Amino acid sequence: MKFKSQARQNQLIEKITAQHLVVGIDIAQQMHVARAVNFRGIIIGDHLSFSNDEEGFHNLLLWIQKLPTTHRLSAAIVGMEPTGHYWLNFSRWLTEHHFEVVLVNPHLVKKNKENRDNTPSKSDRKDALVIADMVKNGYYLVSRKTPQAFEDLRVLLSNRDFVVKRLVSAKNQIHRWVDVVFPELRHVFKDITCVGSIATLRLFPTPAELSKLQPQNLIQGWKTIMKRHCGARKAKALIELANHSVGSQSASHYYKLHLNQLLAEYDLACEQLEVVEKEISTVLERIPFAKYILTIKGISVISLAGILGEAGDLSGFVHGNALLRHAGLNLAEASSGKWTGQMKISKRGRSRLRRFLFMATMSLVMNNSEFQAMHAYNVQFKKMKKMRSIMKLCGKLARILVGMARSGKAYMPQKTLPLLQAA
């Protein structure tokens, strides 16, 4: 399929022939609703409400099989919104039963709901009809089957995001605990979550306990946890600060209980994050072109895994611009007559894919000499603002990634900077 917007739209419309039954389904947690139209948008049959289980799916199958026979249609296409996670099992079941499944953008469904009746009313039956109309008009995306390795990456990255949120929350709560009970700890350890600080909080969390110790006692305690302790100077400084601490001295027993729970949550999150990232590296080894992409200086395992998990097999994109559109990083114009507005990114795509493409580009600008040169050229000679240059380099990265995936070739820096070399 062509990546230019107009050509792609024409192809999607041409796929809907006079022999097609177009089915729109409004997805919900327990009960789905289906409506059907022909290629001209004429409603066919009554609506169907069916449950989100195998019996309900078979009821839909019988309903779809009956309508083409009655109206002399020979093909069917099923459209739906990717609502939360409720559509996943249903879409997989339809694909296994040889139905063509397509997806419509929920934002577009909201924009098109007044087309038929010119009212802002909303219901499951109306939404199903709006979805069917959108599919008939070519406003849909073809649902591609994702290879197993990319599906694994998507699950692992979702899991990683959840673990990272818990880890950040645990760190923030530990910072709060230190500010309340022993704020002077920051004078010795600039990073509260460093090895020495965490070891101190595990062994002697409150100033009252530290003030009773000698430096050698603190060092002996550190040695039970750390291979290399923090030294006598820091031990002495901690004890002196503990003697004059302004931290809370009440409810010390329950503050210690709270800290133990926070440290347990912190340890669990760190352990789970290590396991998930190890699994991500293992899955990436199953993707042939991933090893070539990882040779690019500045591309990390997590950034690449995030891009592949959200975008799927990059060799399925005909051009890097198609990947940008999938991420919502394509440009949107606003102009009318003599007035020309500012160009902005559309943000009509996968937000997580945008995040990983942006993070990967920032890492390349900081660590990769080719991207550093392009960024400097954009800022100094083309007089671009820095953020505009970064967004332009996101497009460059997308084209490089898709090109490497489609060709199966290693990264060639000399091809990255042809214009700058000519200059």
Give the name of the CATH superfamily of the largest domain. Answer: ATPase, nucleotide binding domain
From the 3D structure, determine the CATH topology of the largest domain.
Nucleotidyltransferase, domain 5
Class from helix and strand fractions: alpha+beta
Order of helices and strands: HEEEHEHEHHEHHHHHHHHHHEEEEHHHHH
Number of helical segments? 20
The value of Rg in angstroms is 29 Å
CATH class of the largest domain: Alpha Beta
Beta-strand percent range: 5-15%
Summary of the model, kept short:
This protein is α+β, with helices and mostly antiparallel strands. The protein is built from 20 helices and ten strands. It has three domains: 5-143, ATPase, nucleotide binding domain (Nucleotidyltransferase, domain 5, 2-Layer Sandwich), CATH 3.30.420; 151-281, Helix Hairpins (Orthogonal Bundle); 290-422, no CATH class.
